[in-house]
Amino acid sequence: MKPLEDIRVLSVTVFLAGPFLSMTLARFGAEVIKIEMPGTGDPIRNIGPFAGPEGISLGQKTDDDLSIRFLKRSEGVKSVTLNLKTPEGKAMFLDLAREADVVIENLSPGSLSRLGLGYEDVAEVNPGIVYCSISGYGQTGPYKDLAAHDHQIQAMSGIMDMNGDADGPPTRIGVFVGDLVTPLYAAYSILGALRHKEKTGQGQYLDASMIDTLATLMFMEPMEYTLRDGQPVRAGNGSRLGITGLYHLTDGDVIITVGNLARWQNLCQALGAADLLDNPRYATVEDRERHVEELRREIQDRLGGFSCEAGITLLEGANIPIARVRTLPEVMEDDHFRDRGTLKPMYRQGSDDPVEHGITTGFPVIFSGGALPSLEGGATLGHHNEDVYGRLLNLDPAALAELKERGVV
Where a domain ends, among 325, 349, 379? Predict the structure, then answer.
C-alpha cells in the first residue's frame, strides 16, 4: 500500500527533525528527494559510528561507509547533490519544485528565503506547493534566530522543569523528543494541506516549531492548577499526587497505576493491608494525597519483599496495571517488536546484507488495507543524481558531469 505514491517531496533537511519527516513521508510511498551540498551533504553523514563493506567502525574506512545515524534517518529517501548558492543550482531547484507537491526544510529561519528559494519564490513557479519549515522556535517571534537543538528546546520549553525527581535538578528527556514529535505534527499537517489543495487548488506555507510542539505536550496536563496550588511539578518516577509510580522489588523494579478508589481498595486487599483501608488518615482522596509519601513507603514495605514475577502475578490478579521496568537489551531482543515490524534489521542501500548489530524502526501502525512499502536503506551522497536529474530535468550524463566539474551538483 502506497497512499502517497503520486506525491513528490523536495527535502532540504539536516540532522534529525527534517530527515525524520522525510522518512515518514517516504514510508507512505512518497518520492522524497533529499537535496544535499556537493562534497559534504547532511552533516550527520560525518558523525559515527559508520557501517560499510568492512563492518562497523568509529571512523570512515571507505567511501561507501555510511553513518549509522544517517541510515536510521534516511530509509527510502533519494539523495541528489545541488549547490543552492550558485545561480544554476537555484534555477535547477526551482525547476524541480515545479514538478513537486511538497517542499520541506529545517535550516535556520530565513536561510532559503535569503537564497531566493523561500515559500514565496517557490510559489511563483508552483502556486499549489505545500511548503513546510521546521525550526526550533518558529519563523516568527523573539526567539526565532536563537540556535536551537533539542537540548536547548527542552530547556526553553520548560519540559525539563517537569521532568526529574521532586528534590532533584530539572532533567532532560532521554530521547530527542522535540526533534521527533515535531515532524509527526508536520507530517499530518502536510497531509491536511494536501487535502485542502485537492479541494481548492491552493498551496500553503506551514511553520512548525519544536518549542510549540513541546508546549502542546506539556499542557495536555492541568499544569496551571498544579502551579496555582503550589504543588511540585516534578514527580520523578511517581505521580504528582497519588501512589502511582515505581517500586523496588527483590530482583528489579515495577511501575504500578492506582488511579481510582476501586484500584486503591484492590491494592490494599492484594497486599493484605486492611489497616491502610481502615486508617482514617487515608480515608479520602485528599487524605491520601496529603500523606502520599508515607503511603508510598507503606506500599514499598509490603510489596518490596516480592520478586518481580510474584509481584506482577499478585497485582495483575487484583486488576492493578503493573509492568516490570525492562532494560534496552531486553526490549531489543523481544520478538513482539519483530513480529509487528516495529524493530527490524538495518540495511545500506544496494546491499542485501544487514548491518552488523544494526536495528532500525518500522512504522508503529499496522494497516488492514496492506503493508506500507518496504524501503531501501540510506543512500550514499548523490546516489540518485543521474536518475532524478535525467528523469525530471532531462539532463544526460555528460551534462551532469560538466555540472559536477563546476561544483553545481
Answer: 325
Domain count, the chain: 2
- The DSSP symbol for 372 reads P
Q: How far is CA 334 from CA 222, 291, 342, in A?
A: 35, 39, 11
Q: Is 223 among the domain residues?
A: no
Q: What sign does the CA torsion over 342, 343, 348, 352 have? A: negative
Residue 48 DSSP one-character state = S
* Co-location of 307 and 400 in the same domain: no
Give yes or no: residues 176 and 95 share one domain. yes
Is residue 32 helix, strand or coil?
Answer: strand
Q: Quick check: is 231 in a domain?
A: no
Residue 156 lies in a domain: yes
Q: Is the pLDDT of residue 52 over 90?
A: no
Among residues 42, 101, 179, 212, which one is catalytic? 179
**Structure letter (DSSP) for residue 348:** B
Instruction: Output the pLDDT for position 177.
Output: 98
178-196 per-position pLDDT tens digit: 999 999 999 999 999 999 9
Q: How many helices (H) and strands (E) does the chain have?
A: 18, 14
CATH at 77: 3.40.50.10540
pLDDT, average across residues 279-286: 92
- Tell me if 314 sits within 8 A of 305, measured CB to CB: no
Does any domain span residue 40? yes
Structure-block grid coordinates of residue 265: 481498595
Query: Which pLDDT value is given to residue 107?
Result: 97
Q: Are 38 and 159 contained in the same domain?
A: yes
Arithmetic mean of pLDDT, 78-91: 98
CA–CA separation, 13 and 10 (whole Å): 9
- The rounded distance, in Å, linking the Cα atoms of 213 and 137 is 10
Residue range of the domain that includes 307 = 245-325
pLDDT tens for each residue of 349-380: 878 889 988 999 999 999 999 999 999 899 99
What local confidence, expressed as pLDDT, does residue 348 receive?
A: 85
- Tell me if residue 6 is catalytic: no
Q: In the predicted model, is pLDDT for residue 226 greater than 90?
A: no
